[in-house]
Amino acid sequence: MNAKVKPARKSLPKDKAPSIDIVKVGERIKELRTAKGLTIDRLATLSGVPGSSISKIENGQLRPSLVHAINLASALQENLAFLVGRYRDKPKPRALVRAAERDMIDYPEMGLALQDLSGQFVPGILEARLGVLSQGALSGNDPMTHRGEELCYVIDGAIRYRIDNETIDLLPREFLQFKSDVPHSWENTHEGETRVLWLFSDGLSF
Fold first, then answer.
1. pLDDT band for position 204 (cuts 50, 70, 90)
2. pLDDT at 82
3. Which residues lie across from 106 on neighbouring strands?
4. Containing H/E element for 57?
5. Residue 104 in contact with residue 195, Cβ under 8 Å?
6. What is the 8-class DSSP label of residue 121?
7. For the whole model, what pTM was predicted?
């Protein structure tokens, strides 16, 4: 999953961009790495993320890009919950996630904001995200892969998927499900903002 992210043509407004404590993110990555007995060099080999970047992330000097975060999560056999507060929260058998209480991660280089819908639910088969895609948002230059399945439901706007050599356009109330270990990419084809509901199986998601 060593995709190169292409900057989106337009990023989300600053008032929609949540802050991420990069120091805590770095601490979480370091804790996961050391718990698995991995050196920085070994994690770099497994993830494809340069060791120098991992060192800066762990020391709170660099905020991981989405692609780096996905690759680190995959190498550490985790999902991206380590980027938000619920990594430290005690799991609950039921999760009620109020609209105003969602953890959110902003990736302005992609024109993407992700709202976590899984809350403090016990980690398991499914992960849910609300994706807010600004005009021109796209997943990157190169296709991505991750284990399991991906489900996308368009709330409003329009999104285009490319899966292998097939192009699929989705409009509001349309739904797509596919095996996400197949190379795929997406882009917002709407003239404004697009909102989608993403579900991921096997726990690993962005």
1. low
2. 61
3. 113
4. helix 51-58
5. no
6. B
7. 0.71
